[in-house]
């Protein structure tokens, strides 16, 4: 079975994705989004995509930034809990919409909690995170204790 490690097979493309990731992170910061909210988006997108490598990395990053175990435990069902702010709920809904690409329905994230720049930052972060997840899952990045 062929499972090429994409980061090694086309290193220039990998470098471009890394540069895009850095650009998107800077735009998110300029938009006023909290770093912890961005980590929640990365974790939720990784949950939806089943990417263990990115889940471990971004969960560790979120904990380092002060995220609680309780919020991380309910992130997969964020809409059923009262742990998340309106802005976080909007960002998570937007990230899910972009990741799952459902049949068009009312935009449950578009409630005024995010500015246009913040919505664009979350959207770009989701696009990049989906790319990282697909790269890691396809390449079978090792995830061991």
Automatic annotation (TrEMBL):
Gene3D superfamilies referenced in this protein's UniProt entry, alphabetically: AhpD-like (1.20.1290.10)
InterPro entries: AhpD-like, AhpD_core, CMD-like
Keyword list, A-Z: Oxidoreductase, Peroxidase
Keyword Transcription regulation listed: no
Sequence ranges assigned to domain Carboxymuconolactone decarboxylase-like in this UniProt record: 22-97
Any one GO molecular function term: peroxiredoxin activity
The keyword Membrane is annotated on this UniProt entry: no
Name of the protein in its database record: Alkylhydroperoxidase
């Amino acid at each position: 079975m062929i499972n090429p490690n994409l980061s090694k097979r086309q290193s220039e493309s990998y470098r471009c994705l890394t540069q895009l990731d850095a650009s998107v992170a800077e735009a998110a910061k300029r938009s006023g989004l909290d770093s912890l909210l961005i980590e929640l988006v990365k974790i939720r997108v990784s949950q939806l995509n089943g990417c263990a490598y990115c889940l471990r990395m971004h969960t560790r990053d979120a904990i380092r930034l002060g995220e609680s175990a309780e919020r991380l435990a309910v992130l997969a069902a964020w809409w059923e809990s009262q742990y998340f702010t309106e802005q976080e709920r909007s960002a998570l809904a937007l990230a899910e919409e972009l990741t799952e690409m459902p049949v068009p329905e009312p935009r449950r994230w578009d409630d005024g909690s995010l500015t246009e720049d913040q919505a664009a930052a979350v959207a770009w972060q989701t696009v990049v995170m989906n790319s990282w997840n697909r790269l890691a899952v396809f390449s079978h990045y090792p995830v061991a204790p």
